């Protein structure tokens, strides 16, 4: 957890417990534990009601979601999982391979889209990623698809040129939702990434990957507390159906298990 979150939790404990009178025989450890659980829950519960499927169903069509994050967080696989989730909900997705930078990025998406029987719009390597996103949106309008999922090149939060490119993709595609994909194993570095992306392009929610690797969730707490952003979904495995909606109660129990 970040220092800010740690300090906040300690202050919550102080406020709730200092000077409090307890009945004789009360389990003090359990009182502290319950108070800490409540404090953690209040941090992660903010915005937890954000539902991707519901947002697409009630939002304008096609509903455009742009995904971004640094290299290696599992963004492309996450997009495939979201496409699977949309199809399962009876929605028709179109995927935009707007990562025209990384070698094999489009082939990786194409592999998933063929398996899922989802339309993929792509361009040549080195071409303008914003034009690929625009083409996908145009195609979705033409065929009546309800949602466009835009993949973008993984970029370090310190890469000014690629950040400018991402700003252009966002400016042209005018997304209804911007999702930052973070690696839950990255710890406080994930928070630094989140801050940089918020300053440059802004985002509406977070999807955390690799949560199945026995992560207690300091990243979730840090992002929720310091940036006030909802954690929308968690990646808990490699299969297409291993993307689950974030449940604050489940999370708190997991922290204490």
UniProtKB/TrEMBL annotation:
Query: Keywords on this record?
Result: Cell membrane, Cytoplasm, GTP-binding, Hydrolase, Membrane, Nucleotide-binding, Receptor
Q: Where in the cell is it found?
A: Cell membrane
Pfam families, sorted: SRP54
- A GO BP term, please? SRP-dependent cotranslational protein targeting to membrane
Transmembrane domains' residue ranges: none
The record's listing under InterPro entries reads: AAA+_ATPase, P-loop_NTPase, SR_rcpt_FtsY, SRP54_GTPase_dom, SRP54_N_sf
Give the SRP54-type proteins GTP-binding domain ranges. 62-257
Gene3D superfamilies attached to this UniProt entry: P-loop containing nucleotide triphosphate hydrolases (3.40.50.300), Signal recognition particle SRP54, nucleotide-binding domain (1.20.120.140)
**A GO MF label:** signal recognition particle binding
Ranges where the AAA+ ATPase domain occurs: 61-256
Entry membrane topology: Peripheral membrane protein
Q: Which GO terms describe its cellular component?
A: plasma membrane
Q: Which family does it belong to?
A: Belongs to the GTP-binding SRP family.
Question: What is the official name of this protein in its record?
Answer: SRP receptor
The organism of origin for this protein: Sulfodiicoccus acidiphilus
- Kindly list the organism's lineage: Archaea, Thermoproteota, Thermoprotei, Sulfolobales, Sulfolobaceae
